[in-house]
Structures are given as structure tokens and as C-alpha cells.
Amino acid sequence: MVEEEEVVIVGAGIAGLATAVALNRLGIRALLLERAEDLRATGAALTLFSNAWLALDALAVSHKLTSIYTPVKRELVTNIQTGATQEVSFTGDGPRSVHRKSLLETLANELPIDTIRFSSKVASIETRTQENSPITIIHLSDGTVIKAKMLIGCDGVHSVVGNWLGLAAPVNSGRSAIRGLAVFPQGHGLNHEIRQFVDVGMRAGFLPLTDKDIYWFFVSQPPPNGENFAGNPKLIQRELLENYGKHLPALYLDVVRHCDLSTLTWAPLMFRKPWDIMFKKLRKDNITVAGDAMHPMTPDLGQGGCSALEDAVVLGRHIGEVLITKNGKLDSRDIGEAIDGYVKERRWRVTWLVIGSYLSGWAQQGGSNWWMNFFRDVVFYWFLSSKFVDAAHYECGKLPSVSFSSESKSSSKID
Predict the structure, then answer these.
(1) Which residues does the UniProt record annotate as the domain FAD-binding (predicted)?
(2) Can you give the CATH number for the domain in which 141 is found?
(3) Does residue 144 sit in helix, strand or coil?
(4) Which of 205, 277, 333, 399 is the most exposed, having the fewest neighbouring CB atoms within 10 Å of its CB?
(5) Does the pLDDT value for residue 381 go beyond 90?
(6) Is residue 414 one of the residues assigned to a domain?
(7) 288 with 217, same domain?
(8) Do 402 and 26 touch, CB atoms closer than 8 A?
(9) Domain count, the chain
(10) Does 300 share its domain with 263?
């Protein structure tokens, strides 16, 4: 038996959920296929800059999070070797760090109850032409077959859909990250500001999410035996406290000691080579990708989740504009036009973010040469960092209003 769906989205992460919300706002149903058994909150938390909040505004959900999380006004960066601390101020409404689970649940709660299908792993993808219109056939590992008129891959760094499109596999940046959430039941008493500590080949930091929760991270070259403790949170914590991070300030180490081990992860930092994004096909027939499936990047600009939210709104906007020109009737032959507009708008934007993220990480974790220290402490923090922060001053637009007559609504499905 073959199931039929209007739109199928692979992956119920930030990009997938946000894209489903955008389409739902346009009156288009999407089926989300998630291989995990429930919403995954790997990474514990993430920082959302102004561009992400504008995207959440467009999705009409930002108010549900801004009432919980406080904006950050400054960042303090301490050089471990010299003890010198530099301050980076955020103008306007600064970034806010949020629990990843809260963001995912906020987006999921905007969708009809039957939108997400968990434990659904894509085995293969094929395309056919039916009545001069492209149709996608998705085969799941449990034998389920789904016919869709549009497929959007939001399935992360190792995307099945991205691989089908011919995108090259992401590459290892040569660095790895340990992340976790520290919990202080009686309150941590720290200022609501970002603290970073940099040294040769490593960068560590933390940021309070609430009065009791702190998000922390440690980024460095991967340890020789990293693969041996990647799945053992307690061992990761001990190695960081007693070995890799033992020279870090007592304040930071105390945060690590308070970590909720269920949130602690270690993973290599991956990115897609920018020329693959610039020159490879990001759309074939009515199939495209968004979020990490399109543009995995290192976390050094804090733009991974932000750009995924941008993707969702931009794709929804282009689909909505086609809906309007067709008076609410979107034929599957018109979907390619919408995807082309989306790809054209996103390609250079996300290429720049991938490049900027990589260079930011390289500058902040450079070698011990005097010129690298000069570049990091003077050129980067005093000049280039502000340029990279400008990447957050970006507006992805708003979803169009697609209110049509009852006659149009009755036939506004993608067909």
C-alpha cells in the first residue's frame, strides 16, 4: 500500500519543525518523518541572535520564548596565558540562549497532533513523472512507501536527502566540542553574560540560561582517545576536569562539576565545504534541503540554529508567493519555481556563514605564535568579530497572507 502526502519533511529538528510550522501557517499540511523515538535535544542549548528571533516572529512563536529567556548585553573573553580580559558588547536586543528542548517543543506544539511520525527511517528515494508533474517516492526501512509532491530534507549533517541530491559529505574541522547543561537547584548567582576562556588550541565558555541553568562548552582538537569516551558522559566530565581543562578558572570548572550528565555530549565539529554549497545542486525536481542538511557549519558564530530558522521562513515565503499568484492553487509543477527562488536567496547567505564560522574558530583557537595571538586579540576581537556579529543583523522576511475564498481553499492543496 502506498501512502500519499502533499509535502514530506525528513527530520524533526529545528529546520524540519520550523519548516512544517511555516507551511502550516500557509494552510499546507506536511508530514514530518523523524528517525528517533521522540524529539531529540542533543546539544542541550543554543544561542539565538536577532536574525533567529525575527524568523520566530515570522512563525508567530517568538513571544513564547522571549518571556522565559533574557537577552545578553555583553561577552567577556579571557586569555588564559596572559589573564587579560576583553569585553564585547551587544547593541540593541542582544542574543538569548534557550534550552534546545524548549525551542523544539514550542515549534512542535504549533503543529497538528499527527504531523510528526517518529521511528521513521528513510531507506531510499526515487522520483517519477506523473501527468507531466514530478512525484517523489520515499521508501522507509519498515517497508512503508510514501508518495509526495514535495520532499524537504532537514535530516542533519549526514543527510540522506542531501546525499541523494549529490552533495558531498561534510568534512571534519579538526576540532571537537563537549557540551552540557549545568544545574544549580539553589541558583548559580552569576551575571547574565557570556564568559569565554581562550588558550592555544582550545576555547571554553558558559552562559546562564535561567537563574538555575547554565549552558557550557569546551572546544579543542579531538583527544587521541576521544572515540573511547564519546558515549560515556561521566568519563568525558572527568577527563575535562582532570586533564584537558584542568588549567581553566575554578569558576568554569565548578560549572562543569554541576553538569546534568544526561545532557553532556562529545562530538567532532563538521562543516560542508563552501564551494559545495555554492556550486552543487541544492534542488532536483521538487526536492531540496534546509538547515544542517544544506549548510552544516562549526558553532563559532552561533548561526547554525539561527540559519535553519531563516531557511524555514524563506522557503515558506517563496511557496506562499506562488500560492498567491495561483489564487491558492499550487500545482506540483509550480513547486520547482518556489524552490528555485529559495535556493537562489539562501545559497550565498549560508556560504558566507559557513566561511565566517570556520574562520572565527580558526582565529580564536590559533597557535602559540606571537602573530596568531596578535591576530586573535587585536585584529579579530577588536575588528573582525564585529563584522561577523553583523551576520546576525539579517531579516529573512515574513510569511505572506494566503487567505482565499472558500472555493479556492477547497482546492488549495498541492496537486
Answers:
(1) 6-324
(2) 3.50.50.60
(3) coil
(4) 333
(5) no
(6) no
(7) no
(8) yes
(9) 2
(10) no
pLDDT digits (tens, 9 = 90+) for 123-158: 999 999 887 888 999 999 999 999 999 999 999 999
Q: How far is CA 117 from the centre of its chain?
A: 21
Round to whole Å and give the CA distance between 7 and 64. Answer: 27
102 with 193, same domain: the answer is no
Find out whether 76 and 186 touch, Cβ atoms under 8 Å: no
Show the cell assigned to 7: 509535502
Residue 112 sits in the same domain as residue 221: no
Pairwise CA distance, residues 113 & 80, whole Å: 50
Give yes or no: residues 74 and 142 share one domain. yes
Residue 47 within any structural domain of the chain: yes
The reported pLDDT for the residue numbered 82 is 86
Q: What is the pLDDT of residues 195-246, one digit of tens each?
A: 999 887 889 999 999 999 999 999 988 766 656 677 789 999 999 999 989 9
What is 215-233 written as a DSSP string? EEEEEESPPTTHHHHTT-H
Give helix 50-58 / helix 304-325 axis angle, nearest 10°: 30
Q: Which grid cell sits at 222?
A: 579531538
Main-chain dihedrals φ then ψ at residue 290, nearest 5 degrees: -150, 165
Asked which of 252, 271, 290 is the last residue of a domain, the reply is 271
The fraction of the chain above a pLDDT of 90, given in percent, is 68
- Residue 11's domain comprises 2-170+272-409
Please state, for a pLDDT cut of 70, what percent of the chain lies above it: 87
Q: What are phi and psi of 328, to 5 degrees?
A: 90, 0
pTM above 0.85, yes or no: yes
- If asked whether residues 191 and 156 sit together in one domain, one would say no
